[in-house]
Structure formats: C-alpha cells, structure tokens
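Tokenise the fold.
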Amino acid sequence: MRPLRRLVRGIRLASDSIAGQLTWWFTATSLVLLLAKTLFTYWTMAPVMSAQEGQYVLTTARQIGGRVVASLRSGEMPRIESLMPPAASGFVRVIVGDTVIAETPGLEAEMQLSTDGLTDQAVLIGGTSGRQYWVGGHQSLIAPPVVVQVAVEATEFRLMAPTGGRLWLASGIALILSGIAGYHIARRAIRPLQNLAEAVQATGGSTLDRRIDPASQPQELQPLCGSFNSMLDRLRQSFDMVSHVTDDIAHELRTPLAIIQSQIDVALTAERGQAEYREVLESVREEIVTLSDMVARLLFLSRVENQSVELRRERLDLTAELTAVQEFYEPLALEAGIELDVSSTPRTIHAIGDRVMLRRAITNLVANAIRHTPSGGRVTLGAGRVEDGAEIRVEDTGCGIAPQDIPRLFDRFFRRERAREGGVGLGLAIVKAIITRHGGRIEVESQPGIGTRVTLVLPDGGKA
C-alpha cells in the first residue's frame, strides 16, 4: 500500500507543477494523435482491403472450380479438405448439376446460401453466429455445370492480424516514452523560469545591486526579467532614500539634542539665579519647538506620500488664493524690506484641488523665497493657464540656485547653506509631495545672482 500511496502522491505533486501539466497535455495530445492516425489508417485501408478480400473470394472460387473440373475429368470425386488452400479459413460448397457433392461441415448451420444463379461480385452477408462473411461463386461452362460457392469471414484486419498485437504494444511503449520525453522537455523548458524564481528568492537588502541579464533568458521571459530589474531599481532607490532620510533625521536631531543637553549640563554645574534658569528653559523650549515642528512636518509628509490624507477637491480661484497668501506674508516681507505682490491676470484662473494643501504648498514657496531674497528685492506671485492645466508661479530676485543643486532641491532635509539658513529642509519636500498628490508637476528656473522662478502645474480637473 505504501508504494501505491507514494505513487499517487507523486502523481498529484507532478500534476500541480507546470512540468507535470505540460507532460499530461503532451501525453494526451500524443494519444489523440495516435488514435486519429489509427482511425485514418483504418478508414483509408478498409475499403482497399475489403476489395482485396472480395477479389480473394472470387479468385479462390475460380481456383476451386478448376480443381473440381479436373478431378471430374479424371474420374475422381474431389475431397473438400483438398479444395481449400492450406492458409484459407471459411466454407466451401461444390454443386454438380443439381447435386451437392462436397460441402464444408457447419455451412448450413452458419448461413443459407442460395444455389440459384451467381454473380461476378462478392457480397457481404451475416452468419447466425453474428460474424460477417464475404461470399463469392464460380460456375464452369461444361456440362453438367459445376458451381463452386466460397464464404470467407470478413475482417479488414485479417492480413494484419499476425502483427496487430505487436503494433498495439509498440504504440503503448511509444506513448509511455513520449510522456517521459515530454516531462524532461518540459522541465528543461521551464528551467529558466526556475532560475528566475531562485534569483527572486535570493534577493535581499544586501543583494539589490544584482541584475538578471534579459539577453540570457528565453524571449518569453525577457519582459519579466526587465520588470524584475526595474523593481530592483525602485527597491534600491527606496532603500537608499530610507537610508539617507535616516541619516538626515539623525543629523538634524543630533544638533538640537546636543544643545539641550549642554545647556542643561551647564545649568546644573552650579547654583544660578532665577533669571539664568529661565533663560536656559527658554532656550531649551526653542529647541523643543524646532524638534516638534520637524516631527510634525515629517508626519505630514509621510501621510501625503502614503496617500493617507484624503484630498478635498473643490473649484479654486487661484488669483484669490495667491492674494490671501500675499496678505498673510506681507508684514513679514515688509519687515525684511522685500516687496511682495500678485501679478495681474486678464481673466480669472480656476483649478480643482484641496484648498488647505495647495495653500500650504504656496506658503512654503513664499517663505522660502523671502528667506533667500535680500532686502530691496521682490517676490511675485502669479497664476495662468497652460496647455495641460493651470499653473502657479512664485518668482523672486534672490540669490538664485546653483545648477547642481536644482535636482536635489525638493529632497528631504536638503539645505544649500546649512550654517546660515533657517528651517529644517522639509518645506520644499512637502511642496513636492502635495503637488504629486494632485497629479501635477514642478518646474524650476534659476540663475545664480539673478533670481528663481518655481512653477506648480496642476492638471485639468486636478486629477492624477
């Protein structure tokens, strides 16, 4: 029982695999083709062999008739066992005049043969045993007339009977061998797929630099290899981004935490007055506010990038939105000696988007522009239509951005002049996340020493 169970289990496992399924289909196809070939061969050869058997019956009848006539002329009575050829099987009846002089035993019991007239064609009749017989006859032209009737069992495979068993055995062996060959061919064909699966399984954080060469794979797997390599590129980029963000967060947290620790250590080295303690606490509070702002910005940025913040889309008047931002930042701009205004447009510019999130993106750009524009400079806000949507422009006459810094401008914690610049380097990253969430894009044009223009393009309808 155990070997049988193992065999059944092996068949089930094989049927669940691609190679097993291909083998079953290959074997079934071979069986169908073999049967179709056999039937076609039978339908092709059966009429030919039937005609040959009919001719065989008529020829045998003429040969037996010749022997009977020769025996009668010699004065001998022919014996029935000497009339039929040694290899022939069937029935023979010899009639001289109206008298039956010889007949194979059992003929009357098997069939009824009429003695009235003969035809030159063999006919197919059924016997009482259910067998089919080809029946033919011959009549000599002597007097008295000699009539010979011959009945031979009809089987189109009579000539192939000696080799029929061998053919079936060979067909069965060929079917088994074709199944085995099909299994090995299928295993060899899917080996590249197994190699690809092993490569995927071996992929980890330390092996993201490995790539699969599509040219070494079959043509059908090349698109899959390309997709897998693209996935590894994205994973590598994500891992690098996470690593960089972790390093940046650690760097940004280290400075305020070190300041807090040093101020507390200094305060604890000796007894101090209430004013000194208050000054230390205020300084510590400023650093904690900076840390809290950084954490809040990181949380908001993460929620926007993960699309966990639902957009409340509505129809917005961009000129009105820019005017509201201008009014909010105008006191800060005046204090810095910077002119902040909104450029006039010939018509109202509308867009679909989240009012709160878009206004936050605009305010981050305006705050950044004011920070990098010297006194006496100018920051201009504007809106307009483009071919694929609406745009929001923030231009300044500040220090500009070096060409090598523009690609990293919207990265987290990126700051061009860390020692002099305020902020934590998350404002522009938030701008990018908000515009990407709206399905838009950001364009930056800048010339060092002349100024910068940042354009936010929102698609029509505000859809991604």
Summary: The first strand starts at residue 91 and ends at 96. Residues 306 and 441 are 18 Å apart (CA to CA). The mean pLDDT is 77.
